[in-house]
Amino acid sequence: RNYNGAIKNYNSFLDTYAQHLEARENLAASYSAVKDYQNAAKQFRRIYETNTDSFKNFSDYGIALLNTQESEKAAQMLEKAIELDAENNSAHLGLAQAYQDLGKNDMAYEQYQVVLKRIPNLNTVRLDYANLLADMNKNTEAIEQYNMYIKAFPNDMNGYKNVASVYKALGNFDKAIENRDEMYFSPLLNFNWKPN
């Protein structure tokens, strides 16, 4: 798991054997592992352009593109990944995020539904999912998802802040204030906020 060392060695190897497909795939995967999505996408793009008919890394390429804010291209790659493997939950989640970024909320909602039905305890995506629900004015569902996220991640202020915004939009100012207070004064958050 020395990804930085692997990156150095794969690059050196590919200077001599530029067409070596497995080395380039491993280089792309190593860049992804260290969250250098710009270089990962560059390597996946090169593999795709030279091996279009045999390309199989649609999911990894799509995730790299998503992390470089290339949501339209990411959606195309992730759609292909799901065509090849409908059980690929990472591709479904990536596609949900790409659709969400593109404002295709109904399509994003469908993708989240697919994964959350399969993995009901997947709390790491609940904040993004709740944000989508709030954007779609599905406020009751959004509040439920925010509360599930807060229960799983009580130290993340974003859950409190976002659910407070939904309560405020609904005119439920008591709940909005309660969540804002929880955000600012919870001893779990270790947040040193002082009123002016």
Supply the key terms:
single chain; 196 residues; mainly alpha; 72% helix; disordered C terminus
Question: What is this structure's SSE topology?
Answer:
Layout: H1 3-16, H2 21-33, H3 37-50, H4 58-66, H5 71-84, H6 89-101, H7 105-118, H8 126-135, H9 139-152, H10 157-169, H11 173-185
Helix pairs in contact: 1-2, 2-3, 3-4, 4-5, 4-6, 5-6, 6-7, 7-8, 8-9, 9-10, 10-11
Q: Shape from CA axes?
A: elongated
Structural class: mainly alpha
Query: H/E series, N to C?
Result: HHHHHHHHHHH
Q: Runs with pLDDT <50, length 5+?
A: 189-196
Gap from first CA to last CA: 48 Å
Mean pLDDT: 91
Q: What amount of the residues lies in strands? A: under 5%
Number of helices: 11
Rg value = 20 Å
Task: Estimate percent helicity.
Answer: over 70%
Instruction: Count the E strands.
Output: 0
Biggest beta sheet attributes: none
